Amino acid sequence: MRKLRHWGPGLLLLSPSLILLAIFVYGLIAWTTKVSVSDEHNALGSKGFVGLENYTKLFTEDINDRFTHSLKNLALFTIVFLVGAMFFGLLWAFILERGVKAEGFFRTVYLFPMAVSFVASGVVWRWLMNPNKGENAGGLNAVLGGLGLDFAQSTWWTNPNWGMASMAIPAIWQLAGYVMALFLAGFRGIPAELREAAAMDGASTYRLYRNVIFPQLTPVALSALIILGHMSMKMFDLIMSVSGPQWLTEVPAIYVWQTLLTSDYAKAAAISIILLLLVAVVIVPYLIYTNRQEKNA
């Protein structure tokens, strides 16, 4: 009875959120899982349970290995996106941390792209990454041609080998500022006593950052990687705005959308669950790590 009095008010306050979470998050995940192991491949409904058949077909019987192709595109996009956003975010944060005039202005400039929707920026980048060359060049290729740098013109996202790498450029432009804000907050959160102690020990600027400051930024870097990683795996609107539903730039999220248009609900659900598991592989270890850190603190 005492425990009920102790926990009762809190549970009562949280109950609306818990109910909504149970229905619209975990309930829908359970329903999607149920559909993914059924034979509901059209609007007529399911006739029965097929186990993991829909999952195995994605890797063995999918036309032109479409699903594995989308996974490869996603892997290339994620790697380039993470490396680019982390590099520029850390670089900009380092420059601002060292002290520059008009820091507020530069912070605004770096963070502004994050305020733009992926659809709006994708439309602009679709024009900037116009794959035409020569007299028909547009966007960045036209600028390069005007500067006499025709050799630097690119086919961008239409390149069959590294097109997804160029597709990551708009994502880097849009989210590097967010990473900068995280790292800048990390820089500013390091106690001044650590810097003073390192200076008293005769540490050079390089040693100060290498052995004192950068190790303190590990939690920030890990958080940024997790946030960007799960965003890249679910990327849909930016890619659709730049290239549309193209084979060259297809990722699992776009594949799910196109599969749903054909009313193949079981296949779309199977792809969605695999995508969920990929996101979980990234997020769950991070949650375990942070939980252990909090217990040891």
Q: Quick summary of this structure?
A:
Helices cover 72% and strands 0% of the residues.
How would you describe this structure to a colleague?
The chain has 297 residues and is mostly helical. It has two domains: 1-35, no CATH class; 66-121 and 164-296, Orthogonal Bundle (MetI-like fold). The chain is 72% helix and 0% strand. The protein contains 13 helices and no strands. The mean pLDDT is 88.
Shape: flat
- Termini separation comes to 33 Å
CATH homology superfamily name of the largest domain: MetI-like
Coarse structural class? mainly alpha
Q: Identify the quaternary structure here.
A: single chain
Give a count of the beta strands, DSSP E runs of length 2 or more.
0
Low-confidence stretches: none
CATH overall fold name of the largest domain: MetI-like fold
Number of structurally distinct domains: 2
Number of helices: 13
Largest sheet: none
The share of residues in helices is: over 70%
The secondary-structure element order is: HHHHHHHHHHHHH
CATH class of the largest domain: Mainly Alpha
Strand content: under 5%
Radius of gyration: 24 Å
Mean pLDDT: 88
| CATH architectural name of the largest domain | Orthogonal Bundle
